[in-house]
Design brief:
The chain is of the alpha/beta class and 136 residues long. The chain has 4 helices and 4 strands, in the order E-E-E-H-H-H-E-H. Strands 1-4-2-3 form a 4-stranded parallel β-sheet, covered by helices on one side.
Length: 136
Protein backbone atom coordinates (compact mmCIF):
# COMPACT_ATOMS: atom_id res chain seq x y z
CA UNK A 1 0.00 0.00 0.00
CA UNK A 2 1.40 3.38 -1.00
CA UNK A 3 0.94 6.29 1.38
CA UNK A 4 0.34 9.58 -0.38
CA UNK A 5 2.44 12.44 0.97
CA UNK A 6 1.02 15.75 -0.14
CA UNK A 7 3.53 18.55 0.04
CA UNK A 8 1.62 21.63 1.13
CA UNK A 9 1.72 24.70 -1.08
CA UNK A 10 2.90 27.35 1.36
CA UNK A 11 4.24 30.54 -0.17
CA UNK A 12 5.89 33.58 1.34
CA UNK A 13 5.34 37.20 0.47
CA UNK A 14 6.09 40.53 2.06
CA UNK A 15 2.88 42.17 3.18
CA UNK A 16 3.96 45.25 1.23
CA UNK A 17 4.00 43.30 -2.07
CA UNK A 18 1.01 43.33 -4.39
CA UNK A 19 -1.82 40.81 -4.13
CA UNK A 20 -1.82 38.10 -6.79
CA UNK A 21 -4.86 36.00 -7.71
CA UNK A 22 -2.88 32.79 -7.19
CA UNK A 23 -1.86 33.66 -3.60
CA UNK A 24 -4.53 31.42 -2.18
CA UNK A 25 -5.41 32.08 1.46
CA UNK A 26 -3.41 35.13 2.59
CA UNK A 27 -2.37 34.99 6.24
CA UNK A 28 -0.47 37.73 8.06
CA UNK A 29 1.87 35.98 10.49
CA UNK A 30 3.41 38.94 12.34
CA UNK A 31 2.57 39.71 15.94
CA UNK A 32 2.78 43.47 15.30
CA UNK A 33 0.89 45.34 12.60
CA UNK A 34 3.23 46.28 9.69
CA UNK A 35 4.48 49.85 9.76
CA UNK A 36 3.07 52.31 7.28
CA UNK A 37 0.07 50.22 6.27
CA UNK A 38 -3.58 50.78 7.02
CA UNK A 39 -5.66 47.68 7.69
CA UNK A 40 -8.01 48.67 4.89
CA UNK A 41 -5.09 48.56 2.42
CA UNK A 42 -3.94 45.02 3.20
CA UNK A 43 -5.60 42.20 1.30
CA UNK A 44 -5.53 39.30 3.74
CA UNK A 45 -7.87 36.58 4.87
CA UNK A 46 -6.50 36.07 8.39
CA UNK A 47 -4.17 37.69 10.88
CA UNK A 48 -2.75 35.04 13.17
CA UNK A 49 -0.61 36.92 15.68
CA UNK A 50 0.03 33.91 17.90
CA UNK A 51 1.95 31.97 15.26
CA UNK A 52 4.68 34.62 15.35
CA UNK A 53 7.72 34.25 17.60
CA UNK A 54 7.28 35.30 21.21
CA UNK A 55 8.12 38.95 21.89
CA UNK A 56 11.23 37.90 23.81
CA UNK A 57 12.52 35.70 20.96
CA UNK A 58 11.69 38.30 18.31
CA UNK A 59 13.58 41.01 20.21
CA UNK A 60 16.56 38.74 20.87
CA UNK A 61 16.80 37.75 17.19
CA UNK A 62 16.56 41.33 15.91
CA UNK A 63 16.90 39.98 12.33
CA UNK A 64 20.61 39.46 12.98
CA UNK A 65 21.94 36.73 10.64
CA UNK A 66 24.47 35.77 13.33
CA UNK A 67 21.51 34.63 15.49
CA UNK A 68 19.74 32.77 12.68
CA UNK A 69 20.63 29.17 13.57
CA UNK A 70 19.70 29.56 17.23
CA UNK A 71 16.59 31.57 16.34
CA UNK A 72 15.37 28.77 14.05
CA UNK A 73 15.82 26.19 16.80
CA UNK A 74 14.09 28.31 19.44
CA UNK A 75 11.21 29.32 17.17
CA UNK A 76 10.59 25.74 16.04
CA UNK A 77 10.51 24.80 19.72
CA UNK A 78 7.85 27.47 20.33
CA UNK A 79 5.87 26.24 17.33
CA UNK A 80 6.07 22.61 18.43
CA UNK A 81 4.57 23.57 21.80
CA UNK A 82 1.57 24.68 19.76
CA UNK A 83 -1.53 26.75 20.28
CA UNK A 84 -4.91 27.00 18.56
CA UNK A 85 -3.64 29.35 15.84
CA UNK A 86 -0.72 27.09 14.96
CA UNK A 87 -3.04 24.08 14.78
CA UNK A 88 -5.40 26.06 12.54
CA UNK A 89 -2.57 27.07 10.23
CA UNK A 90 -1.31 23.49 9.98
CA UNK A 91 -4.81 22.38 9.02
CA UNK A 92 -5.16 25.15 6.44
CA UNK A 93 -1.77 24.33 4.92
CA UNK A 94 -2.85 20.72 4.53
CA UNK A 95 -6.04 21.71 2.68
CA UNK A 96 -5.08 24.47 0.25
CA UNK A 97 -2.47 26.93 -0.94
CA UNK A 98 -1.62 29.60 1.59
CA UNK A 99 0.60 32.64 1.40
CA UNK A 100 2.27 33.72 4.61
CA UNK A 101 2.52 37.49 4.73
CA UNK A 102 5.35 39.05 6.74
CA UNK A 103 6.77 42.56 7.14
CA UNK A 104 10.50 41.84 7.59
CA UNK A 105 12.84 43.40 5.03
CA UNK A 106 15.17 40.41 4.77
CA UNK A 107 13.79 37.54 2.67
CA UNK A 108 16.54 35.17 3.86
CA UNK A 109 16.40 35.65 7.63
CA UNK A 110 12.84 35.99 8.87
CA UNK A 111 10.41 33.96 10.92
CA UNK A 112 8.08 33.24 7.98
CA UNK A 113 10.73 30.94 6.47
CA UNK A 114 10.88 28.89 9.65
CA UNK A 115 7.10 28.86 9.92
CA UNK A 116 6.71 27.66 6.31
CA UNK A 117 9.13 24.78 6.91
CA UNK A 118 7.35 23.87 10.14
CA UNK A 119 3.95 23.87 8.40
CA UNK A 120 5.21 21.70 5.57
CA UNK A 121 6.74 19.23 8.03
CA UNK A 122 3.58 19.15 10.16
CA UNK A 123 1.28 18.72 7.16
CA UNK A 124 3.44 15.89 5.81
CA UNK A 125 3.23 14.09 9.16
CA UNK A 126 -0.55 14.63 9.26
CA UNK A 127 -1.01 13.36 5.69
CA UNK A 128 1.01 10.23 6.44
CA UNK A 129 -1.37 9.38 9.27
CA UNK A 130 1.43 9.17 11.80
CA UNK A 131 1.91 11.37 14.80
CA UNK A 132 5.07 11.68 16.84
CA UNK A 133 4.03 8.84 19.08
CA UNK A 134 4.32 6.50 16.07
CA UNK A 135 7.88 7.50 15.25
CA UNK A 136 10.95 5.78 16.65
Amino acid sequence: MTVKHDVPDVRLKRVYDAFAPDDGLRVLVDRLWPRGLRKADVKMDLWLKDVAPSPHLRQWFGHDPAHWSEFRLQYRHELSNGNAEIARLVELAHKSRITLLYAAHDPLYNHALVLRDFLCDAAMVASSGHGREDQS
